[in-house]
Amino acid sequence: MAYTRSKTRRRPSRNTRAGQQPAGSPHPIILTVTWLLTGLSGILLLPAAPILLTGMAIARTSAKRPDLSGQDAWKQPVPASPKERRQDKSWRRIRAWFTPCASRLNPTNPILPAIAAGAALAALPVHAKWGEPWAFLQFAATIPLIAAWPATPQTGPIHCGPRPVTWAKKQASRILICAGIGLTAGIGLWVVTGNPYLPITPIGLLAPLPMLAAWKASRRQYHADRQAARMLNDWLAGMDKPPVDRPPTGLDGTITGPYGEIVARLTVSQATVWQDKKIRDQFRIPATRQGRDIAFSLDGADNLHVIVNIAPLQPPDPNRLIADKTSLTCYANMETARLCNNYNATGGKSQLQQVGTRDNQPACWVWRMDGGSADSDWEMIRRDWLRGSTAGELGDWGTLIGIRMIVDPGLDHAWLYTEPLDTIQFDEPKATKQHCRAFSSRTDGDTHAYLKLAVQSQQDMALWEDALSGGKLEPPMQIIYDRRIGADRLTSRDGMWALEQTPMSIPTKGGWQATDYMKTDLRAAFGDSTIADIVGMRNRGKWFTRYMQFIQSVPANNPATPTQLRQLTGDGLAERTLAQVIISRGFAHLLKHAAYVDLPRQCAADNTGWTMWRTDIQLTGGDTGMDARKAAPRLQSMLGCDMLLWDWHDAASVTLWAGDQCPADPDMWDTVRDQRDALRLRLDEAWSAAKLLAPDGRGVTTVNIRPWQGRLTRLDFHMPAGFDRDMLTGRLDTFLPAAGYAYGRPLVNDTADPSMFSLLVCEGSPLPDKAPLDLHLVKPGDSRLPFAVKDDGSIAWFDPASDPHLLASGTTGSGKSSVSVSLVLAALTAGWQVLVTDPSKGANDFKPLADKLAAFEPSLEGCYALFQYAYREMRRRVQLVADHGGGDWSTLPADIRPPRMLIFCDEFNSLLQKDKAKLDNPNDDPDVANEITLAAWRNGLRASIGLWVSKLLTQARSAGITLLLGAQQLNAGDLDLLPNASTAKGMLARVFLGVGQPQGNVSQANVREVNRLHRQATASGGMPKGRGVYERLGRGVDMVQCFWPGKGDELNRYGPFPGMEPVDLTPFMPAPPELTGLTEQSMIAGVEQTGPVVVDESDAQWVI
User: The FtsK domain covers which part of the protein (predicted)?
Assistant: First the structure.
């Protein structure tokens, strides 16, 4: 294949073209020739305008842009040398010709008549020299020449032009007047001179005169725009890297402030890009060198323009700054840009409305933002831009310029002012329109009050921001100050503490509810407040989920403010609100979810010194009653109360009772119904605490609570199926303390319903610590003997008609002798025949009464004689009854009926004990032999006494003979030593004093109950002297406090008693044993008979 050279001319390569000199533009030569010809024509008074117009058109058409060797930041060619700058300037100037023709020749432009007037003036010399045709040519060419005349060319990417001025309708009348004057003057000149161009001149000069101010304003605007554009172009020219992908192209709308501020509109390719902090920082480098700062703001929704704000680095005095709208606009835009850069937002331009003055100078403005993301998120502005920080670039809005901003609670504008607020005079008609009535309707017409409240709201919001910064919760959307209840209404009765209650709305963002805020501990964030808690807010029986109430102590840290329910008495609004806070806080901290707590009510009567709060509670978040019951011990501790009572309505709804006690006295309660309900709940809860619950969850329920005799209260309960009396009795030790009682005694079921169980209870011991003997209770001939006070305050009587005989036993020092002495004194007063014996201690307690007794035998053989006599007397009386037709002692005729007989034998258990010691006598020692004989003799006496006592116990009742046996604490088998023991023991009522083993001292059926009563007494302070249990035959036991008759010579104060013949027991004395050798009589008697009377000191003193 053959290759041939192309016949077409090869284009020179780029490198070849780069080495050649560029062809010059011909327009300078054309301009030179044009100006020479124009000047020559002017000298000759020829029409010069057509020559200049034609030359400029040719030069503009032929002008070529010079090749520039420099590059700007966007890689566009720029002059790099003075020569290139001159060439570039010349090219720009010629290319600027004819550009403004369209606007200047627009009929709506008031400059057109002026152009015509100028053209007419330019045609006058030509008309005078060469006549009308040449003058018309001059006139016709001058009009487009003037319209095509360019402004000074600008360098850089940013260009600006004069603002077009159009005819103003409001100046129409003035324009017509001026035009008429000009027309009149022109016609006159025409008539005088005959020149047809003269009438045009006055009209063209005078008609636009009313628009002169607009022209001047446009001219000032143009010069301001040029200055701002030149400044920005210079800064752009000095940048190595472009701040944006495409440079700005135009600038207009420049306004300047008195302190060097510049605000202008910049034409850009994409407005949002100019909100980038990097762009601002790049412009700030050259601006700072000139002592200026710069920022950019969005121009509303316009994406092709931004607002450029340039101001001195050092702002003027705040009062001067706020007095000028332009200065304030500029610095406000700059502050907005700074905060938007800090918080990744975009900000729009400022819109200001003056609403207040100080010393006739603007001092307060309503500020709105036009454009940007911040304009739609005033919550962010309030939350992030006004945090109380003064840390320079990171500080709050206005900290760098000394202007205070308050975001209006309506969240659509802000208030700008300088302190002090009180010195500002507001234009109330204008300012009130800017109020948010939803925030406060009480401040209508008072902007000072409104802004102070807004300032407080802003400060409060900042506190909430800090308080909730550690969690995910948003601060309240609005604080409802109009519904705030202040300390003047929430002050305690004693004036020692107060509260403040403020409703708040919850932000919809995040889906939070009031219960979420309740679980936050706010006390530290609010100045270590004693009280700083969120509680729910009622809505017609239901609960708001988007509203809540904040309750804080006043002052914040007040140690006098109670923090426990037991410290909180009274029923004022302050006390009720504080109780609500304490209960709500407890549930919020101990359960998984917070609970809605209604305003509690005090159930205690005024000035009673105790407290019981009742409130309705709604559990939330799936929490149930079982969850609350599990947390009850911790909840009780946290609430600072001694008891919690629950009245469950359903799984999540409960009425809670919380207080320090639950008294049985109705006068202690606000209403009787409160007392009844609380006591019922307390008792039901106590049975639950005693673990008495059926498998299906049912428990013992309280049927009735009623006052009983003395200090006792009767409780009637219903037992669910599967429960019996023994189960409940066995849990009394747990039930009674849980129910708040120290004393309890079960009663025999006196109803036909076997599921009923009754108790007598008392909060303390119902018995007195000491009960003096009162013999006025006894009348001669009485068959019953008083000896003690029972738990219901009634007298405990020993009645042989139902209880033939009585055993009084007890521990040492328990006061058992007082029972015997009291019964003996009562029997003497009633006219009974009383015989007393004590072979063990000598009956020392009765020696002061020995001369009043029918028999007093302190020795064993005397005891033997006394019981032998008693046995024979019983036989005699039985025979006497038989001789008189049968029956019993009480049926005998009064004239022959012997008196009732009371036989008292003390230390009876020792009396029954035989001497079982065996003595060996291998040496036939007479003394040892005598001891052996005496021991056998005494044992024989004891056996006889035991036999007679047994017979008396079983047979003496019908003969009017009663045994009163005294003994130390018996063991279980001590009374079995009696002959026919089982029958004999069945004839004994029992009094057992002190705390000891009840076996042997009471019947086996009551041992368990006596043990419980002893534990109960020990737990509630012990058993004082004379305290014990009284068991009647075939019945339960009663706790009694025995009478105290006194001791020693104090017994002499009783009497006188009915006369009673002493009994001669000599015939009944046993024969002494036959002894070996000489033996003292005292060896036989076994009791020393000499010496003064000594009273047993074991029962000498009662300890209360």
Answer: 792-1002
